[in-house]
Specification:
single chain, 30% helix, 5-stranded antiparallel beta sheet, HIT family, subunit A, alpha+beta
Length: 138
């Protein structure tokens, strides 16, 4: 397996080299808003320790991340009065992974409302407000 690259964008966010709209943080995980949101409230949960994806994560990293995913997903569902939540997680390039630091996407979903297309920069004021709404629901 390829070694972890500490210059990936999520590692830079963890080090504070790139700003983010933080939603939740504890000793082991960080949740922040996706700046190219595919749904209102689209956020990411990552471990604070290095790992590329599920395939090389320790059981402790996975447990910590999944605990935060559950907590934030419930808050996002409440904050956006969502009908459900979609989780996305990709492993290695062939599996669709583009950033090689373990991360889970949380998408609040409403019936019959599709996800927006990928790669479109969102409105930073809206993203910030959406993050604040999720944080308030925690």
């Amino acid at each position: 397996m390829t070694a972890y690259d500490d210059q990936n964008i999520l590692a830079k966010i963890l080090r504070g080299e790139i700003p983010s709209f933080k939603v939740y943080e504890d000793a082991e995980t960080l949740c922040f808003m996706d700046i190219m949101p595919r749904s209102d409230g689209h956020c990411l949960v990552i471990p604070k320790t290095p790992c590329r994806n599920v395939l090389d994560a320790t059981d402790a990293q996975l447990a910590a991340v999944m605990s935060t995913v559950k907590k934030v997903a419930n808050a996002a569902k409440t904050a956006f009065d969502a009908d459900g939540i979609t989780l996305q997680q990709f492993n290695e390039a062939a599996g669709g992974q583009e950033i090689f630091h373990l991360h889970f996407h949380i998408h609040p979903r409403h019936t019959a409302v599709p996800l927006r297309g990928p790669g479109v920069m969102g409105d930073m004021d809206v993203i910030k407000a959406n993050g604040e709404a999720i944080a308030a629901a925690l």
